[in-house]
Amino acid sequence: MTRKVIRATCPHDCPDTCALLVTVEDGVATEVRGDPEHPTTAGVLCMKVSRYTERTYHPDRLLHPMKRIGRKGEGKFARISWDEALDTIAARLKAVAARDPQAIVPYSYAGTMGLVQGESMASRFFHKLGASHLARTICASAGGAGYLYTIGARIGTDVERFQDAKLILIWGGNPIASNLHFWMRAQEAKRRGAKLVAIDPYRSLTAEKCHQHIAPLPGTDAALALGMMHVLIKEGLVDEDYVAKHTLGFEQLRQRAEEWTPQRAAETCGITAAEIESLAREYGETVRRGDAAAIRINYGLQRVHGGGMAVRNITCLPALVGAWRHPAGGVQLSASDGFPKNTAALQRPDLMPAGRSIRTINMSTIGDDLLHDASPDFGPRIDALIVYNSNPVAVAPESSKVARGFAREDLFTVVLEHFQTDTADYADILLPATTQLEHTDVHSTYGHLYMMANNPAIAPLGEAKPNTEIFRLMARRMGFDDPCFDDSDDDLAAVAFDKTREQAVHFDWDSLKRKGWQKLNMPDAPFADGGFPTPSGKCEFFSERMQRDGLDPLPTYIPPHESAASNPELAKRYPLGMISPPARNFLNSTFVNVQSLRHTEGEPHLDMHPHDAAMRGIANGDQVRIFNDRGSFVAKARVTEKARQGLVVGLSIWWKKYAGDGKNANEVTSQRLTDMGNAPTFYDVLVQVEKA
Ligand SMILES: Nc1nc2c(c(=O)[nH]1)N[C@H]1C(S)=C(S)[C@@H](COP(=O)(O)OP(=O)(O)OC[C@H]3O[C@@H](n4cnc5c(=O)[nH]c(N)nc54)[C@H](O)[C@@H]3O)O[C@H]1N2
Ligand SMILES: Nc1nc2c(c(=O)[nH]1)N[C@H]1C(S)=C(S)[C@@H](COP(=O)(O)OP(=O)(O)OC[C@H]3O[C@@H](n4cnc5c(=O)[nH]c(N)nc54)[C@H](O)[C@@H]3O)O[C@H]1N2
Ligand code: SF4
Ligand SMILES: [Mo]
């Protein structure tokens, strides 16, 4: 028997980007474990990925190209050859491109976060074709925008420092489920005497384990942060020296914060003024003592109308009190801008047809866009869609419209997938893609500071091919002869990071492949002495860029699109707020088809407060229908005080075909967008619930 251990990387859309060791026996992957030497992974994987071989060798893996033989959405396919698949695709795309290549739209997100199997060869292909651009907004662009206006780049406190903090605010995140290796650091901080505070409308697994849980109404975090600023300024907890040297607009901020008394903020947030006062005092006093106060913002709080502003306001707090002076202080939303990605080398925007402006389709409104006719504003109707690394029919908002769009008979749809997902059911041509164990990749991350390598552990299963290879073959069929379409996956990985930039001067693909991971060159406390990468070089309490973009240049509160306070008319019919954050055993919609993980989640649930349940005659375990004007879905009620009164929680994202009624939470979510970043508002939803 031959036995080897391969260095790999978890490809999933998770901040932890774990270093994996894959055991291969006689060409078969038999075990996937966490690398004990990698500092953030520390030998630990989440349940999902420790079961990785179950996913890779799943009996439902797509192993051959297929063409649709039933109705769209029905999921009936027949096996075809790669030649037939590629010939069909090339013929259809050429016909559409002859009219207008912008009628062709790529649709992809972070099924894999790899820089090679994500947007490298695929982007080259679409650039050369002159296809529409896709704005990849579905997850993080609202919070990202708020952070960028304030701090200048998505750089923050190193996750490896959090154990040294004395106070950690876990704000809009559920790290036990979705950021486990940060939670391990927070636990270590707790053992060393730190206090952990969760700020979350739902008593999540994480909130249950923190010392304190503050439960604001969804979409009101911006007001909470303003109330904290009010207290910090009024009680003299501001670091005047830091503010004078490294921030912009304090005087205007002071006036704005003055309006946000703890009473006013508390009313907006549905919590008590005392909670806001004591949180602000504890935060300010921790820093004043010379200890570290750290904030981990996660994306849960920015999936609402004012999500960008909420992140912006929270991001002002560390500069106000000087928390950045300590390497364990400050804030982390994302670490992604620490990585000097060489996007131009990977994606080759120079291949785009010269002198033509190309429209952008927002992935978060794909429902409306697929149903849109040609118009001068919109451009051509979407005639062809190529989906990879994403499952829009399950994950995109206002799903009934998404499904109607995908069902259009005149739309040509190609899906590259591991499994026959809800989206794959609508494909005209379905292509089998390799998993992380079968292909090469290189990774940046958004939760730690290591460049990561993924070596293939096993040969591709069946006739599966890497995304890169599929786009190479499609390029050849389209007659694209630029030599860049011959680049191998190793060639692509070798140019992934820009070695002229300080953070990655030591990047070398051959050695990274052998070692598995390598930390970026980054300062220990990134903003201890200011140096913010904003236009002013300061943390911008006042932002001219925001003013230019038509936003309030100062921290403010933007109410939800749908809440009892902001839309009382709608709330008469649909009185309950609904959020649908990630379930622990799924990763977005990935893993829902892995039986052991699905069985752990059970079935689609809806958590609701005993009072809200009793008013509707609903008992624990009843099947309930959740509905609004956009649609409805069915789930099993769990009557629990984890959901605050007035709020229901449906952990997600279920494949529709595994739900009793063939629907999921996105039936009721809306396509309305956030205040900045054009992101979806998944957690800004009003519904009614009744016994099914
Ligand atoms: N197991 C698992 N891990 C995952 C994922 C997964 O699906 N499953 N998804 C991955 C992806 S793509 C992402 S983007 C990250 C997301 O990871 P997180 O940012 O941690 O986001 P969520 O888990 O969506 O939300 C975290 C918490 O935010 C709360 N929340 C909802 N609305 C609000 C609000 O208005 N204010 C506040 N303060 N809190 C609110 C929710 O109740 C939830 O408990 O996780 C990644 N990791
Ligand atoms: N209601 C509700 N909706 C949400 C959210 C929510 O919290 N609530 N969260 C939102 C968020 S944060 C996000 S990020 C999006 C996520 O939405 P998506 O990015 O669509 O994520 P997944 O659902 O995990 O789907 C990824 C797909 O990519 C496939 N895949 C993985 N690797 C490869 C590969 O190498 N090649 C190919 N061809 N395919 C591959 C997987 O099999 C999987 O089906 O969903 C959003 N939707
Ligand atoms: S999903 Fe996240 S926690 Fe789980 S192995 Fe991957 S990177 Fe690590
Ligand atoms: Mo996400």
TrEMBL record:
InterPro entries membership: Asp_de-COase-like_dom_sf, MoPterin_dinucl-bd_dom, Mopterin_OxRdtase, Mopterin_OxRdtase_4Fe-4S_dom, Mopterin_OxRdtase_prok_CS, Prok_Mopterin_Oxidored, YoaE_C
GO-annotated molecular function: iron-sulfur cluster binding; metal ion binding; molybdopterin cofactor binding; oxidoreductase activity
Cofactor names: Mo-bis(molybdopterin guanine dinucleotide)
Domain named 4Fe-4S Mo/W bis-MGD-type: residues: 3-60
Keywords, sorted A to Z: Iron, Iron-sulfur, Metal-binding, Molybdenum, Oxidoreductase
Gene3D superfamilies reported in the protein's UniProt record: 2.40.40.20, 3.40.50.740, ADC-like domains (2.20.25.90), Dimethylsulfoxide Reductase, domain 2 (3.40.228.10), Formate dehydrogenase/DMSO reductase (3.30.2070.10)
Listed SMART domains: Molybdop_Fe4S4 (SM00926)
PANTHER family associated with the record: OXIDOREDUCTASE YYAE-RELATED, TRIMETHYLAMINE-N-OXIDE REDUCTASE
Similarity annotation: Belongs to the prokaryotic molybdopterin-containing oxidoreductase family.
Record's protein name: Molybdopterin oxidoreductase family protein
Organism in which the protein naturally occurs: Noviherbaspirillum galbum
High-level lineage: Bacteria, Pseudomonadati, Pseudomonadota, Betaproteobacteria, Burkholderiales
